[in-house]
Amino acid sequence: VQLQASGGGLVQAGGSLRLSCAASGIAFGGAMMEWYRQAPGKQRELVATITIIGATKYAESVKGRFTISRDNTKNTVYLQMNSLKPEDTGVYYCSTTWNMRYWGQGTLVTVSS
């Protein structure tokens, strides 16, 4: 199983980024997908989840600003991040559980004030 995340970068507060995570080695359409993030000096936290039927759930801190989506034809999950804040800074990881927990390599998002 491989999860390849991309799309991170440096953005000013109020800006937007879209993260992508391409999955291989799993039946993607049957996998719940998640985005986590880890800020410097903090524990990794769950940001957003999308089920196999497209139901979504978000951390309170990102509700109304972030949108998780999936394209099963491309085996890819996305995280659209709008109205970014400096506290959104961190390494973002995509993840899934397929017999065991798998993590992507992470992509760094830096939001400057």
Beta-strand content bin: over 45%
| Main sheet: strands, sense, barrel | 7 strands, mixed
Q: What's the helix-strand series?
A: EEEEEEEEEEE
> In angstroms, what separates the terminal alpha carbons?
37 Å
Report the average pLDDT across residues. Answer: 97
User: What is the radius of gyration computed over CA atoms, rounded to a whole number of angstroms?
Assistant: 13 Å
Helix count equals 0
Briefly note the structural class of the backbone.
mainly beta
Shape: globular
Helix content: under 10%
Identify low-pLDDT runs: none
Secondary structure tally: strands: 11
Q: What's a concise summary of this model?
A:
With 113 residues, this protein is an all-beta fold. 0% of the residues lie in helices and 56% in strands.
